[in-house]
Design goal:
By secondary structure, the protein is mostly beta strands. The chain has one domain: ATP Synthase, domain 1 (Sandwich). About 0% of the residues lie in helices and about 70% in strands. The chain is built from no helices and 8 strands. Strands 1, 2, 3, 4, 5, 6, 7 and 8 form an 8-stranded mixed sheet that branches. A hairpin with a 2-residue loop joins strand 7 and strand 8. The protein is globular and about 25 Å long.
């Protein structure tokens, strides 16, 4: 899946990934390749991204919104 994590100021991550773990407002959840369309609010925590090479990144956020559609995850975040 294609993942883009942006803030009002900068792009934090853009590229292909095989897993994204997110701090939802109702608890942590993961999305994988070909996940069903979803819109979710995010709370304070860490976004975990595992790219297609197996490299893991952690990104701290205070809040945000996820939109998953057509195998693309768009994450609008506040840091």
């Amino acid at each position: 899946m294609q993942v883009e994590i942006i803030t009002p100021d900068t792009v934090l991550f853009t590229g292909p990934a095989k897993l994204v773990q997110l701090p939802g407002t109702d608890g942590s959840f993961e999305i994988l390749d070909r996940h069903a369309p979803i819109i979710a609010t995010l709370g304070k925590g860490k976004i975990k991204v595992i790219d297609t090479a197996g490299v893991t990144q952690f990104i701290d956020i205070n809040s945000g919104v996820l939109e998953m559609s057509d195998n693309k995850a768009n994450i609008l975040a506040e840091q």
